[in-house]
Amino acid sequence: MPHAQSPSSPGSPNSPAPPGASAAPGTGGGNDSIDTLDGRLIRLLAEEPRIGVLECSRRLQVARGTVQARLDRLQAKGVIGGFGPEVDPAALGYPVTAFATLEISQGQGADVRAHLASVPEVLELHTITGAGDMMVRIVARSNADLQRVIDRVVGFDGIVRSATAIALENPVPYRILPLVDQAAAE
């Protein structure tokens, strides 16, 4: 696998910007996250996740070392979190998606988090403001199976109350590229 898909050494955030790039992050050249070249690199990797560093450098018309340094820096800063496959729960046999808002007992946050992390059908957990304390995205094999999943999720002493909404369709699936484009343009 190319080094771009499993880099292990963080880049130097203080190194000068490669030729053709805008001001280095942190030097007053717009936002502190990414520049235009970073945005183009992220878009290329999102559109073709199996592409290697050498091919990225060829398509972006920059040196291989520039691409590798950018990848290392973007990973070190947490902009790029990984290069894993995008897996569709429905294709794994879990076509039902639901969101549950949970109210928890005071002081039980850590225990509830550990409990929820042990439930494979819990795909995400967010602490929230508003009516509840946590929101979880869960999946199930069917609407009937969803009851089993909900029972497992709320079957914990630290969870006081829950409300669940079933997702009917996903007309705007999770996306990040419009945000990348905006951040790179700032």
Describe the overall structure:
A hairpin with a 6-residue loop joins strand 2 and strand 3 (134-140). The protein has a 4-stranded antiparallel sheet with strand order 2-3-1-4. Residues 1-30 have low confidence and may be disordered. The chain has 2 domains: 3-84, Winged helix-like DNA-binding domain superfamily/Winged helix DNA-binding domain (Arc Repressor Mutant, subunit A); 89-166, Lrp/AsnC effector binding domain/regulation of amino acid metabolism (RAM) domain (Alpha-Beta Plaits). The chain contains 6 helices and 4 strands, in the order H-H-H-E-H-E-E-H-E-H. With 186 residues, the protein is α+β, with helices and mostly antiparallel strands. Helix 2 crosses helix 3 (64-76). The protein has helices at 36-47, 53-60, 64-76, 109-117, 143-154, 177-185; strands at residues 96-104, 122-127, 134-140, 159-166.
Structural class: alpha+beta
Shape: elongated
What percentage of residues falls in helices of 4 or more residues?
25-40%
Q: Reading side by side through the largest sheet, how are the strands ordered?
A: 2-3-1-4
Q: Which sequence of SSEs, written as H and E, runs from N to C?
A: HHHEHEEHEH
**DSSP helical segment count:** 6
CATH class of the largest domain: Mainly Alpha
Rg, nearest Å: 21 Å
Number of separate structural domains? 2
State the separation between the terminal residues, measured CA to CA: 33 Å
What percent strand?
Answer: 15-25%
- According to DSSP, the number of beta strands is 4
Low-confidence stretches: 1-30
Q: Tell me about the largest β-sheet.
A: 4 strands, antiparallel
